[in-house]
Amino acid sequence: MLTKAFIPYKGYYSTPFARWQGSLANENAIILGSDTSKRWLAEKKWDPKMFDYLFLGITIGQHYVFYGSTWAAAMMGATGIPGVTLMQACSTSTTCIFQAGVGVETGLYQMPFCLMADRCSNGPHTIWPNPMGPGGEVESENWLMDHFNKDPWAGGAMIQTAENVAKEAGVTREQCDSVALRRYEQYLDALADNRAFQKRYMFPAEVRLSKKKSLMLEADEGVTPTTKDGLAKLKPVLPEGAHTFGAQTHPADGNAGVIVTTREKAKELSADPSVEIRVISYGYARAKKGFMAMSVVPAVRMALEKAGITVKDVAAIKTHNPFAANDIYMAQEMGIDVNNFNNYGSPLVFGHPQAPTAGRCIIEGIEEVAMKGGGYLLFGGCAAGDTGAAMVLKIG
């Protein structure tokens, strides 16, 4: 359990998420993330040089990713600080925030910044030399599609891992459709009153179209309207599977930033010093081969145990749910109502740019708990390689 790591209230942001091949498709994620953070800090009138370390979370290679963390820090205006580049698929944000918290807890850092940025669109194609190939042939790899379609250890596509869990746990097509519709309805709550909830934390991404013209992405792009009848008409992605394209997430682009610091400095930066946000605990797990959705439950249980609480003690739960079966399985195993968590949105609806995905979920969870007057926030999500990560924070 951590006792000294805090997040300032409103010391975080997430951009809207743009669907694959949308408005952010041609932007270098590191440059866009750094530029967004710089503009956000300027609006807050905060000097980027207040940071002493940078955690750059990114999972899909971009130009100059070799220099990722230090380059990003310099572009933000935090010149002179070192950093690390961290990759853990969709658990990247969770791990960045907790590692920053551990650094603050031990006194290694005073105020690290976590910048998580990814662009699933136009992913790079890597060429590898093949000394055994005839005629100088090479091996190639598509950073996005090849990895979605095959885990080199488990051997199957990510959708297959969800279907494996659905089959073993008895999850049906009808349950998946029901959860998909419920998650869309919850997302609509975030759009009510002219997107009042999203405007509590969302910061626009700016795309420079020319020297004189820019596009501001103010809201999520490419969310698919969902109805019961519409879901019923869709065919399963895999033959006889439980998931249609309506019950799984979609690749996206975006970035998010989170400040982690000491209690005193968090109060100085907080939009409301009476609201404290403490990073409490972290959990991790790896499920059996080819059963990615199962990994969330043991990770969540570890985070709750280390926090000294139970799932009944939390005020809100957010998950990274690339497939509807993720939430259904977790609800069954944890004894909770699948319809009563992921209020205001989840990756099943707004997509997942991978690195910032958990960051946005955690930020939304903080805002939801703050609206309720405080309490514990539980986040849990899976990641590639049948792994999972979870986090508990206390707000108020």
Task: Indicate the topology.
Layout: E1 12-14, E2 18-19, H1 29-44, E3 53-57, H2 68-76, E4 83-86, H3 92-106, E5 112-119, E6 125-129, E7 138-142, H4 145-149, H5 158-169, H6 173-195, E8 205-208, E9 214-217, H7 228-232, E10 252-259, H8 263-269, E11 277-286, H9 296-307, E12 314-320, H10 324-334, H11 347-350, H12 357-371, E13 375-383, E14 387-395
Parallel strand pairs: 3-4, 3-5, 12-13
Antiparallel strand pairs: 1-10, 2-10, 5-10, 6-7, 8-9, 11-14, 13-14
Helix pairs in contact: 1-2, 3-12, 5-10, 6-10
Structure description:
The structure is a single chain. Helices cover 34% and strands 21% of the residues. With 396 residues, it is an alpha+beta fold. Strands 1, 2, 3, 4, 5 and 10 form a six-stranded mixed β-sheet that branches. The longest helix has 23 residues. The radius of gyration is 20 Å and the shape is globular. The protein starts with 11 loop residues before the first strand and ends with a strand.
Briefly summarize what is shown.
With 396 residues, this protein is α+β, with helices and mostly antiparallel strands.
- Estimate the global geometry from the Cα principal axes: globular
Q: Give the count of helical stretches.
A: 12
Q: In total, how many beta strands?
A: 14
Q: Could you tell me the mean pLDDT?
A: 97
Strand content: 15-25%
Pick out its properties.
about 400 residues, alpha+beta, six-stranded mixed β-sheet, four-stranded mixed β-sheet, about 20% strand, globular
